[in-house]
Amino acid sequence: MYKEWPPLLRRLSEDLGYVVRAGKPALGYELFFVDLSFWKLRLSNRTPVIWVKRRDLESTFPQHLLQSLGDVMRERNLSRQIVLVLLDGESEPLLRHTASPLYNLVVIGCEEQERILHSRRPSGELLDLISAQVPISTLAPYETRAPVTGSRFFGREYEISRIVGNPDTNHAILGIRRIGKTSLLREIERILKESEDPAHVVYLECSDLLATEDYIREVVRKLNPRELPRLHLQRYVFFFPDFLERMGRVYKSKIIFLLDEVDNLVIMQRGDWELFRMLRASANKGACQYILAGFREAMREQYLLDSPFYNFAQEIRLSEFTRRQAHDLIVTPMENLRVRIKNKDEVVGRIYEETAGHPNLIQYYCMILLRQLDRTGQREIGPESLIDVYADEGFKGHLLTSFMQNTENREKALVYAILLSAAEVQSRGFSHSFIDAVLRKRGIVLPQDDIDEACNVLTLAGVLHHKGKEYFFTSPVFTKVLKQTYDLEYLFRKVKEEGV
Amino acid sequence: MIGLQAAPGAPAIVRYNLDALEQIAECVQDGTYCVVLGPRLSGKTVLLQYVEETLARSLGWTCVYIDLYTIQASTLQGFFADLIRLTAGRIGELANLELPVPEAGPASSAVFRAFLSETVTALGRDLVLIIEHLEAVPADLIQALLTSLRAAFMDQQTHEQRVIVVVSGALSLATLTVGESSPFRGIARRVFVGDLTRSQSETLIAEQLARKGIEASKRARWRLLQAAQGDPYLIRRLCQRCAEMTGGDTPQRLRGRNVKGLTRSFLQNDVYQYAPLQEAVRLIEEDPDLLHCILLLLAHGTVLKTELPLPLSPDVDPLYLTGVVEQVNGESYRIQNLIYHRFLMRHFHPGRVGYLLAIVGRWDAAIDYLEAAIRGGNQEASSDLLPATIHSMYAAEDLFQAARFLTRGLSAAFAVVEARVWHAPPLEERLQLVGHLGLRANNAPWASREIPITADRLEARAYRQARALRGPEGGRHVWRAIPLMTPGQRPVGVVMLCDDLQGEQFVAQRERDLRLLGYLSQAARAVQAVSTRRRELTLAGRMQASLLPAAPPEMDGWQIAATLRPARETSGDFYDFIPLPGGRLGLVVADVTDKGMGAALYMALSRTLIRTYASDYPDRPDLALQAANDRILADTGADLFVTVFYGILDPATGTLTYCNAGHHPPYLFHAQGGGALQALPGRGMAIGMIEDTHWGYTTIQLDPGALLLLYTDGVPDAQSPEKERFGTEQMLDVAQANLGRSVWELQDDLLARLQQFIGDEPQFDDITLMAVMRNS
Question: How many Å apart are CA A206 and CA A183, to the nearest integer?
């Protein structure tokens, strides 16, 4: 079958061990998919390759060919991907028309293919070619808006091994917004599905599943949609446990549920907990395993003795990256993008400090750096190229938004009150009683438990960390940016007015 | 890029929003969500329909446009059911595909999401879903819709085909759609449309005039620009009016005065029906701080960001979201155009502002505005002003403040020019002047601040007889004394006021009198409430003060000074000297972490328990505190705690055995080494936090010449008017400078320095100091 493959793909597959699969032809073009995920860039394990043969080039104007390739991408829904075009001819005429980044196309002509085939570093040559045609900020794996998996997923090795290594235990992944809970769930889903003994994994986004009925319908839809039409005839308490057991038998394995964003579900279930009791029962029977992800509400329930959440799942707190994980997230993609980092330790150290190790912020930061490089055409960064975070409105906004999003008025009040107190205390560290005193000084009296919980959330959010009894602000940058941007007296008054 | 560009014949609004067009295209390309926001009538519909048309017809995307105004359901389930049917219908038409529509009947957000997921699978390609006019549905339905779409976004990340959502709505929905707690936060890009720059406004005016065949003078163009700059709809509307007005002329000629007339006419007849301004007014009226900013802009024209009392976040700028304000050079703001300016000036007249501020309880500012409104001739404002002053009196800190609000009410609503407010303290045979109004306030015979109730004066007689009395007539003015009465009780005071006898008819005067008496009756209740509150606090303060040692003990070879300055009537701080067997002396300095009555009671309890257990454990300060801690936790359910330093001083040997339960570390200045300093830090937490706490104790030696300084956090935390902190370092510097002098001199100096530092700032925390020195 390889005979009908372009020589470059044959070489990648036969000699270099890349996984290459032939796809269904599109508009007369041969289509292939190659796994480039281990480069840890935005190239996926199904990077599309369109093969344009010599006969397709005959008497075709480059702009017409480009239109044709655009049609292929639309037909096959490839518009969001970086697509390699293997051209049995010269790449130059086509490249002239792709000078504006009309599509994420990488054109590899005959000459370049030959060069790769005969190179002593063919993978490197191919990567060089790709990074020369696609802006490195596009090629980079960094993503701040959506969850990522596979080649674009970094860190969390401990959490993954704990979850994957304990198939009989339910787990509750707790962490603030944008810390990477969904990505972790998706990565676990990928790992479980690709494992030698694949389990039946169901990912459920629960933020809009507000009633037991919604949840059950969604599970049925994912496991056996044929049963949906008669669902309304059933009584859930009898139907659902039976359904799960039947499905376990159908799939011949335990069903692993990855329940994302369970907080809303928890709020709506408070009271009778009918659904969670069913989940607990199914887990106890061994029919299902549950891996939940949530934040505030899930965290609260974990510790309530009368909650079905109590002792239901092992808690895994997702906090900021370690320095080593941050190093990998910064350095690996940069090196793969052929970006040289001068004074690596200093660069990584500063980014780590300024982002407090928050993976989303690190990625946002790195994207700013890469866009700078795209603008200047340079391929080197050093301490001098690090952004002035106090001046960069985008980064400041992202940093503050992260804080505002992850905190409620009570936590905000606590932070503002501390920042409005003496500067020396902020750098020296502050105790529980100090926090209480500064709040009281400003007219807010909170029970000890509430202060505890607020400190807990702020620690999880990476705003505070504690050594012994003393709390510290994790990032000096955050506190400075907060003070610089807002009138803290005003903000404090506002949260007080709104109620803590 | 997908090549979403403005074609030559594209509508003007598209040409003026190329950036927005590009950003929407990027979102579609990347598969991310997009939120398009703009003022009402800013052309979002035209822009989005253009996007739909270009994506669907020219670029071959499957793109569906949903106008939420076409959905009439008001329930959540009905809304999603309608939305599913509408979307399915549109996609069916477009793709000639029968979609897996859920059975008829109510749906939920989850059903909608499932429908979208199945639809893209059936389509086999991405679906661009444009949902417009979010403002057409209630806020909770918008929230449910966005939550559902967010869930779809997260759900589809591993799928080949996706739904790409573009939602659009009025600017006022920014918080809901892109604010920090919005479901779309972090997954959607926000795109603002609608604002025109000055040059774009000029071009649009020129285009509109040319299209209507109007020849306009330079002055007319300038006036049009001033009137409607930045607002494309307003520009088009004014130009249309221009065309209608000059319809008879050939060629049509437009002059400056025509535009002036049109602007005036728009402001008189149309402005209250103009949707963008209605929305702006709603936003501004909901937020008193935003209102304050707008008032500043109206008063001063262009104002620097830093001078506006609003946190202008880099994220969602609340001023921008009103749609009536524009940025100038990135540093300042101003109202966007003349029509907005004039309308807002007229709308936010002092009476309305006062009313709005009264609603949110900003009484002082509300009264200012309401007074200004009354002065400006709006007598209706007095019906808001009087309740505002009464509410303010109830919230007053003391009687003087309450009386000030009362006189403001009298002055503004009843045109009283001179008045005195006398309070009769219970069980005291005197009237005390607590407030006055008028220029002659300090002149004799009014200067006296107290009069006996037996005095032969109008106010005293009115008080004794509990009825209003008039002074002698004879001139234009007459004085009246009106007792402040509460039913069934003695008057709480008397109001003397000077009435103008001329200018009013009898009936009008009588009516005014009745209103005045009604007002004073309400004021009497407020004065009584404040008086009772103050009396109770004062009594509590006196009781508490009586718990403190009358004077520090005198011991041979030792000097001891101590003082406490409460921030309010009652205090959470205390100090104590406890006589112990063997001539020893217990030294206690403590701070309850609150102020007010609760803290005072807690203080009294703590002091008693420490005293009790100090006798039980005369050698072990830690055990005494431990016992007090357990007892406090057992007996009180308060969320309070107290930091305590308790030391047992043996005057004979100079040893001090101490235990510090979470208190600020006292400092010991040794006699040797030029006053070498030693902190006596705390171990563990404060008393009242956790049961079974163990602190341990330490023994140190106070050699001759040594000085021990104990204090509460009111000393280092004292704040200057510049909000600087006095600090521990400064406190120690003062102490160091006074080494060698007596402890009383040290105490006086330290208090004087603190007072100097605090200046006119109110003292916000109790201040306690204790100094113990062993004579050399």
Answer: 15
Pairwise CA distance, residues B633 & B641, whole Å: 9
Q: Is A230 on the interface with B (CB under 8 A)?
A: no
Residues of A in contact with B109 (CB under 8 A): 208, 210, 214
Checking if the pLDDT of A347 tops 90, the result is yes
Two tokens, residue A66: 């480009």
Interchain CB distance below 8 Å, B641 and A433: yes
What lies within 8 Å, CB to CB, of A75 at 6+ separation is A26, A27, B125
What's the pLDDT at B1?
Answer: 46
Comparing CB atoms, the residue among B148, B186, B314 nearest residue A208 is B148
B727 contacts A422? CB cut-off 8 A = yes
Q: What mean pLDDT do residues A379-383 have?
A: 92
What does the pLDDT read at residue B444? Answer: 47
Helix (H, G, I), strand (E, B) or coil at B645: strand
Say if residues A368 and A375 touch (Cβ distance below 8 Å). no
Q: Which of 283-322 (A) contact B at CB < 8 A?
A: none
- Nearest-CA distance A171 → chain B (Å): 20
Q: How far apart are CA B266 and CA B263, in angstroms?
A: 5
Phi-psi region of B404 (alpha: psi -120 to 50; beta: other; left: phi over 0): alpha
pLDDT at B439: 58
A194 confidence band (pLDDT: 50, 70, 90): confident
* B contacts of A436 (beta carbons < 8 Å): 593, 641
Q: How many CB atoms lie within 10 A of CB B756?
A: 9
> Rounded to two decimals, what is the model's pTM?
0.73
Q: Which residues of chain B have pLDDT under 70?
A: 1-6, 100-105, 247-252, 311-315, 439-447, 474, 501-504, 595, 638-639, 673-675, 683-684
Q: Is A346 on the interface with B (CB under 8 A)?
A: no
Q: What is the mean pLDDT of residues A362-376?
A: 92
The pLDDT of residue A365 is 92
Q: Which residues of B touch A211 (CB under 8 A)?
A: 108
Nearest CA in chain B to A498: B360
* pLDDT for residue A8: 94
Q: Comparing C-alpha atoms, which of B227, B83, B207 is closest to residue B142?
A: B83
CA distance B154 to chain A (A): 7
Q: Tell me how close the Cα of B2 comes to any Cα of chain A, in angstroms.
A: 6
At residue A102 the predicted structure's pLDDT band, cuts being 50, 70 and 90, is very low
Task: Give me the pLDDT at residue A56, please.
Answer: 86
Q: Tell me which residue in A260, A440, A490 faces B593 most closely, judged by beta carbons.
A: A440
Q: Is the dihedral of CA A422, A426, A429, A434 positive or negative?
A: positive
**How many angstroms separate the CA atoms of A317 and A294, rounded?**
10
Distances (CA, A) of B518 to B423, B522, B523, B652: 18, 7, 9, 71
B150 interfacial to chain A (CB closer than 8 Å): yes
Is there a contact between A485 and B113 if contact means CB atoms under 8 Å apart? Answer: no
Token pair recorded at residue B697: 């104790």
The confidence score (pLDDT) of residue A497 equals: 77
**B125/A77 Cβ within 8 A:** yes
